[in-house]
Amino acid sequence: MSDLLSIGLSGLAASKTQLSITGHNISNVNTPGYSRQDATQATRHPQFSGAGYIGSGTTLVDIRRTYSEFLTTQLRSSTALNSDVEAYKSQISQLDSLLAGSTTGITPSLQSFFSALQTAAEDPANIPARQLVLAESEGLARRFNTVYDRLTEQNSFVNKQMTAVTDQVNRLAGNIGRLNDSIAIAAANGQQPNDLLDARDEAVRELSKYIGVTVVPQDDSSFNLFVGSGQPLVVGSSVSRLEVVPGLGDPNRHEVQFVSGGSRQTITTQITGGELGGLIRYREEVLDTTLNSLGRLALVVSDQVNTQLGQGLDLKGQVGSALFGNFNDPALADLRARAFSDNPSLNTATPADAALDISDTSLLTTSDYRLEYDGTQYRARRLSDGAPITVTPNAGPPAHLTFADANGRDQGFTVRISGTPVDGDNFILQPTRRGATDISAVLDQADQLAFAAPLRAQAELQNAGNGVIGQPSIDNVQDPLVPADLKGMSPLSLSYAAPVAPATTGTFTLTAPAGVTVSPATLSITPGQSNTLSYTLEFGGSTVDVSQTFSGRPAAGDTFTLEYNQSGVSDNRNALKLVDLQTKQTVGVDNTVVGSGFSLTDGYGELVERVGTLTAQARMDSDATGAILKQAQDNRDSLSAVNLDEEAANLIKFEQYYNASAQIIQVARSMFDTLISTFR
């Protein structure tokens, strides 16, 4: 009877525990990361009797959670990947709307500017048309400024969000460290603390939303967590932390540092996964390049327009004034190159600093550069692709450094170093980063727009033939255009000599004023066909390459004259060249490849297309990673989540088990009472 009572009591205890576990499962049905628990029962050691071994009841061997390390790891990695993509998509979608918008992008302002130039070119003496050009140039500059401001606001948001995310990472890492300690202590008793393990798994999963981590289980049931390229964020109960700080080279571009004890290590480029990885990836792949592309376009616009205006004459016969501000102003040049805040030379009496001057906007890339000094020479690399850049010192004056890649392509800028650099000094070079905010319209006098060309050609009235000479074009940039030199070259006479049989080509003899060098002095043409006359004039400090067309059949002795365009009020030839800048290949030119580069319109279109393509890809990635995450969650839930229907069935089963065990105890009691009654 005592054996029967013991058996009943063991069943009663087992069923009570099973009911408690079932209730625990039900109460945690909505607890994130909770894994369903169940108990494992086994029979007690049987007792030997003369008839054989008799069972002695049941006992609970283990209370375990329904858990798969593989499914949990899959869910964790899917969470990190999806959070990365979602953070990236959120930012790039805003950028795509900004650049491609009909009211927010650059294209409408660029088109309006060139439309105003076209209107003014049709009537170059019309002051209201010229005023419209000034208004549209100001609108274009402000549009560049506004888009730049929106991009810098987004950059500031990324910086703040990085700080907020690292705060969450540090909070969760500390929580995981404390759970590690509790789990290790509990596991030392020989059994796993299921609820603590679930809490830690959920904390690690939540951490994966913010940053990609590598989890390494340890023998004492603790987890070691690693980030970046293997930096130990959590080792047992010891926890390091992440900190977001202004960049050493660019304080506006924050970096992530791994802080362990008293040591610091910048790991920004090594972070992948999670929201932090997505923000950093967006900044590196899209935001930085967009800022540089937009800045390069602004620099090319201001440079090409100003240069072309400087090749013409205004309504007063003066050399044209610049429409946009000087991008090589010393104050702006200083902002394009920055010394690292930890440079060794900062501790000397003459710390090294740098200034970057744009030498050729058409050759600029959309990359930043890093310049290093090793005590004897400079080394540089292009940050967009890591390509090494050859640095060549130039004695000047002023002394400067020039840059070219392995193919000999000039990078379009030079750098001036001031102070005394020492071994270990570093500089960040950003040729185009500020171009869109630095552009400004500075011309406010419409009559100073140089729409007229500086030279003109005409035929003598006494000419007997029907030869027609085209208006001259100066093919090389005059920097600066010197009217006194052009006047000194005038007039240039072109006298025609007819061909003598059997020759079919006639000859122009070029006669210039004293002191003017003409090369070549004679030009051959084919009468009756379209010909191109090309020659060079040198006088004073100017060298002018002239080209013009010639057609018709001139008579022997016919003379044509080239002279300074003193009163070209109605001349629109330079205005037409300004209009042609819209389609001229002036952006991203490779001086080692003939015909490379693209136009201003195509330059911005390429930027919009690239961002649009990346945005579409991000949306597809979001759908894909979202589906993968859902599948991973479903797979984990199918094994570990609580099923209320199943638990309800267990309640009934274990309740019946409890009642049956209680009945065994009741039977044992009745038997004992009967036995006692027999001896009364």
Automatic annotation (TrEMBL):
Biological process according to GO: bacterial-type flagellum assembly
Domain of life from the UniProt record: Bacteria
Domain Flagellar hook-associated protein FlgK helical: 92-324
Flagellar hook-associated protein 1 D2-like domain location: 346-431
GO-annotated cellular components: bacterial-type flagellum hook; extracellular region
InterPro entries: Flag_bb_rod_N, Flg_bb/hook_C_dom, FlgK, FlgK_D2-like, FlgK_helical
Localization annotation: Bacterial flagellum; Secreted
GO molecular function, one term: structural molecule activity
Extent of Polar residues compositional bias: 30-46
Family, as annotated: Belongs to the flagella basal body rod proteins family.
NCBIfam families linked to this entry: flgK_ends
Protein name, as recorded: Flagellar hook-associated protein 1
Annotated gene: flgK
